[in-house]
């Protein structure tokens, strides 16, 4: 499989973790989201993903899959071991809720395009943009911190989709200097996950396009 990725992309980071957890080899096709206004905006990448975002995964049949959660579902359905969701329906709903706080409520507000829009189209100062970023991470993390009941992973003894979404978001928060001292459970989950080779190999600094 081929993964269109960028080392710092937290959505691509999610997919890299899932591929590693499933033990699936893949080739990285790097799409630099920063250089020249973003190589993701080039026609050749638009032809791959009309949304012009990473990740995109070329499946073994050549089909291109987009949207990290859809890709991870596909991987979990086609390679069920180890499962990324619990067997029981209520537990599955809890895992999905944590994952969706990150993927639906935090990340879309703080992603490259919205932040660029705030700067270039809404003419906001960098300090206001940083405050916006911090605000939405803090709000989401407060909820997640309150919802984490187990250890060492976000939903207990097994790694789930919740961890796959949370760890990249924590990376992102650290990069933008969001204080994490009020989130000891989240930091504990991150520490536990990063001890696992599947997470460690997926880290931005361990990618072939890391700068
Ligand atoms: N909901 C999408 C988000 C994908 C996304 O926004 N990726 C970012 C990088 S983390 C991107 O490609 N940004 C480029 C841009 O916004 O121009 C997913 O989960 O795959």
Which key features would you list for this structure?
211 residues, 7% strand, alpha+beta
Approximate shape: globular
- Number-wise, the strands total 4
- Attached small molecules: glutathione
Strand order of the largest sheet: 2-1-3-4
In percent, how much strand structure appears in the residues?
5-15%
The N- to C-terminal Cα distance equals 24 Å
Structural class: alpha+beta
Order of helices and strands: EHEHEEHHHHHHH
| Main sheet attributes: strand count, strand direction, barrel closure | 4 strands, mixed
User: What is the alpha-carbon Rg in Å?
Assistant: 17 Å
Enumerate the spans where pLDDT stays under 50 for 5 or more consecutive residues.
none
Please report the number of helical segments. Answer: 9
Helical content stands at: 40-55%
User: What is the averaged pLDDT score?
Assistant: 97
List the helices and strands and how they pair.
Layout: E1 2-5, H1 10-21, E2 27-30, H2 43-48, E3 56-58, E4 64-66, H3 68-78, H4 89-110, H5 112-120, H6 126-147, H7 161-175, H8 184-194, H9 197-202
Parallel strand pairs: 1-2
Antiparallel strand pairs: 1-3, 3-4
Helix pairs in contact: 1-3, 1-7, 4-6, 4-7, 7-8
The structure holds glutathione (GSH).
Glutathione binds next to helix 1, helix 3 and helix 5.
Describe this structure in a few short sentences.
The protein is built from 9 helices and 4 strands. The protein is of the alpha+beta class and 211 residues long. A 4-stranded mixed β-sheet has the order 2-1-3-4, covered by helices on one side.
């Amino acid at each position: 499989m081929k993964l269109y990725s960028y080392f710092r992309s937290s959505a691509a980071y999610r997919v890299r973790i899932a591929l590693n957890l499933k033990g699936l080899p893949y080739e990285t096709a790097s799409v630099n989201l920063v250089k020249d206004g973003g190589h993701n905006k080039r026609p050749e990448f638009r032809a791959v993903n009309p949304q012009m975002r990473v990740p995109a995964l070329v499946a073994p049949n050549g089909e291109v899959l987009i949207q990290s959660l859809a890709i991870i579902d596909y991987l979990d359905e086609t390679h069920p071991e180890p499962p990324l969701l619990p067997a029981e329906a209520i537990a599955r709903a809890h895992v999905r809720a944590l994952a969706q706080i990150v993927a639906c409520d935090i990340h879309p507000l703080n992603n490259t395009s919205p932040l660029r829009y705030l700067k270039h189209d809404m003419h906001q100062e960098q300090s206001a943009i940083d405050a916006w970023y911090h605000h939405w991470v803090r709000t989401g993390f407060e909820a997640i911190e309150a919802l984490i009941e187990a250890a060492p992973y976000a939903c207990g003894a097994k790694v789930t989709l919740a961890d796959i979404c949370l760890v990249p978001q924590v990376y992102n928060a650290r990069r933008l200097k969001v204080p994490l001292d009020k989130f000891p459970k989240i930091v504990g989950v991150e520490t536990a996950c990063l001890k696992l080779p599947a997470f460690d190999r997926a880290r931005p600094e361990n990618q072939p396009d890391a700068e």
